Amino acid sequence: MYNAFFQTLKNTVDFSEEDIVVIKNHLTPKKLRKKQYLLQEGDVCKFVAFVEKGVLRSYSIDEKGIEHIIQFALEGWLIADLYSFLTMEPATYTIDAIEDCELVLISKSAHEELLKTLPKYESWIRLQITGAYIALQKRLTSIISLTLEERYESFISLYPHIVQRVPQHMIASYMGLSPETLSRVRKRITSRK
């Protein structure tokens, strides 16, 4: 169950076998069925989830009932409402499964304990947060500086696996577009080629 998680750890930081045993004792496996919630807006996010198998999404719904997808998470990715996890305040986002999922959960208490006892875990977390911040900054730059066509082409170039596994209306939501607008963007790109 933890194969992808430990492979990701070992690919980023040089964890010893003893470190792996300590970390494993702090993990909780979880399975979700398609459309099942991992976290609902308003609840406190008490864990970070690593995706072993499947696809999750994080989103909010505005006052008009329109869904705004903030993040997708596929195999090898982490997902949480980080603000809620760190502050223990109610979550702003809902997280649910787009596909059946197998997850590895790190609870808030386990996370704090691992930060205290394993410096390599702290290094790994720092690298994960840094990577997430860089991805967020790239996304914001894309939104303010690229045309819709360029944004979509960049998205499919960076995340071809998401495009293959996630419905187009969800990709439209992630991009801040209506499904109809995304369809027109895709047609314009196709007609240019």
TrEMBL record:
SUPFAM superfamilies: cAMP-binding domain-like (SSF51206). InterPro entries: cNMP-bd_dom, cNMP-bd_dom_sf, RmlC-like_jellyroll. Residues 14-115 form the Cyclic nucleotide-binding domain. It comes from the Bacteria. Pfam families: cNMP_binding. This is Cyclic nucleotide-binding protein. It comes from Flavisolibacter tropicus.
